[in-house]
Amino acid sequence: MAKNKITDNSWVSLSDMMTGLMVVFLFISVSYIVEVQKQQKKRDTIFEEFKDTKEKLYAELDSAFKDDFKQWQVVLDTDLSIKFTNPEVLFASGKADISLKFDTILQQFLPRYFDVLLQKKYEDKIAEIRIEGHTDIVPAPQFDSDPYIGNIKLSQLRSAEVLKYFRNMPYYQDLPDTTEQRLQFWLTANGLSYGRTLDSDKQLTALSGQPINNANSRRVEFRIITTSENLVEQVLKEMAE
Asked: Is this structure's pTM higher than 0.90?
């Protein structure tokens, strides 16, 4: 009888140990589920903020410039890029000089554009404002023997000329120091050569598969990158890992 009692006690101890392990695993599972739910909620919040910020900025820019953009032949895209694609307005082939017509448009466009972006509600929503220069596929040997690199330099000059033009405007000169510092953090001038040429319908040739239209490809674009856009990229990267 004593032997059976010892055996029964052993089974009781093993049963208690298994119950304890099950409880531990249960707590681990619940903690994991709670953490997954937290991460999902965080991701949902980031994506919602990203969508909301872009929609608000698009709506405000569209409202501010709707009639002007038609007149200027400017395209406002839902990705918050503004494309100046009228070849009569922009640059001569191989040149970075701002035309008189583009000068007139910039005088009207830049102050109102930055009046929208410099609102307090967007102060922590914008990560970068890119001024992008684009070229046609004509080689630019005056800048480099490599056609692509030569046009990188040319497109960089074009974007830099627009940024320089803005910095010399009375609007910019009258900005408070703190606002100027914010713009210096936000603004970049980027030269993209002929990597993103346009076709006759002003669509990216890399996507449309249509022939390149050199006149349309010589252009400047303003592009807003939101802070949530960087977070979205980080979330997508984490999800892929």
From this structure: no
